[in-house]
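Example 3.2
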Amino acid sequence: MNPTDLNELTAQWNVARLLHPAYSALAREFVIELEPCADLESGTETPPRESVEQAARWLREMDERIQIHQLRQFLQTSPLASAEVLGTMLTHLLQKPEKSPSDRDKIDFLLVQFFSQAAPSRLEDAQVTDEYVARLLAPVLGPVDSTKPAWLKPVEGVLENSRKVRSLDELLHSGVLEQGRRLKIQSGENYFLPVAMVTFTRLSFLMRRRFFHLMHDDLNVIFDGLRELETKGIQTIDCRRAQFSAEEPILRLRMICQSWKVMFQAEYSSGQPLRMLVDLRAAVDDALGRGTTPNSASPKPAFKVTSAAVASKKAPAAPAVKPPLAAGAAAAGPSGPSAKSSVPGVKPSVPKATSTTPKFNVPSDDPAEFEVSSGDWNPDSSGNQ
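Structure, written as C-alpha cells:
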C-alpha cells in the first residue's frame, strides 16, 4: 500500500471513529436498528482496509436512515454535539458525490448549528453579514468567493419581510418561512456552492432568531394579559380554541406558560406546541375584548401539527426541563463557546456546482423547517418532550 492510499484510509477511519459515538447514540435514542460495525465498536486504531470499507458502509447506511427531525432534536440535546463533531459531520456529508434532498436539509441545519457555536454571545443582527458568516464557516467550507449570483438576491427580500412581522401567528401565516424554504429548494444543485451555503446559513440563522424572538414576545403578551384579567377579577377564560377547557383557570395557564418559556429556550424542540401558543394568545385577547374573528380562508401554516390531542387537565407540576445547549440557544440570544479555527482531522470541503441552472428535485412532502408535533405533548407533564 502506497503512502497516499494509507493516508486516505487513515483519514476515513478517523472520521468514522469520530462520528461513531454520535451516530450510535442517535440510533439508540430513535431506535434505528442497524448491525454494528465491530472494529468501530472495539476502537481499533489501525484496522485493515476491509474494516475501513465496512465502516464507510455503516456510515452511509446510517445517513440514509437518520431523518432530519431526528438530527435536529439530537444535536440540540446531546453533549456529543461539539464543534468538532458538527464540522466532521458536515464535511462527511459535503464530500458525498451525490446528495439527496435529505442530505441538503441536514447540511443546512448543521451549517447553522456550526455557525451558532462559533459565533460570540450577544451577536447583533447587523453583524451577521455574508463575509462574517463565511469567516466562521471557513473550517468546513474553506475560502468562499463573496461574489453573490443574481439568483441569491431574493434572500434579502425574505429577511426584510421577516423584520416586518409583529407576532408569531403573523409569521406562521405570512408565507415568509415558505419563501425561504422555496429558495433553498429552487436553488437545486447550486445550493452546494459555498457562496450559496453561506447565504442560506445567514438566512436560517436570522430567521431562527426572529422566530424565537416573536415566540417569547407572544409569551410575554400572554403573561401581561393574564395579569390584566386577574385585576378585573376574572379567574377563568374560554380556551377551547387552544385545546384547553371552556373555563380554564388563569393560575394554571400562567404555570403552563412558565413551563413553555423554559422549554422554548431550546430550538426545534420536538413537540413544541406552537399552534397552542398562538391560539392561547388569541384566547387571552378575546377575553380582554381585543380579539379578532379567525379567518377561515387563512393560508396554511408554515408548520405541521401531527395531532391535536392534549391529555388531562390537572394543575401542572413544576416543569423539569433539560438546560438547553449553547448551540441551541444561540438563535434566541446567547450562543456557545467559539469553535476552533479548524476541525482536527477534517479537510475543508469546497464543493463545486456542475450546472448553472437548478435541477435538484425535491418531493412535495419535504419536512417543514419549523415542524410542530403536539401529539405526545402533555401540558400537565413534568418532563420536556
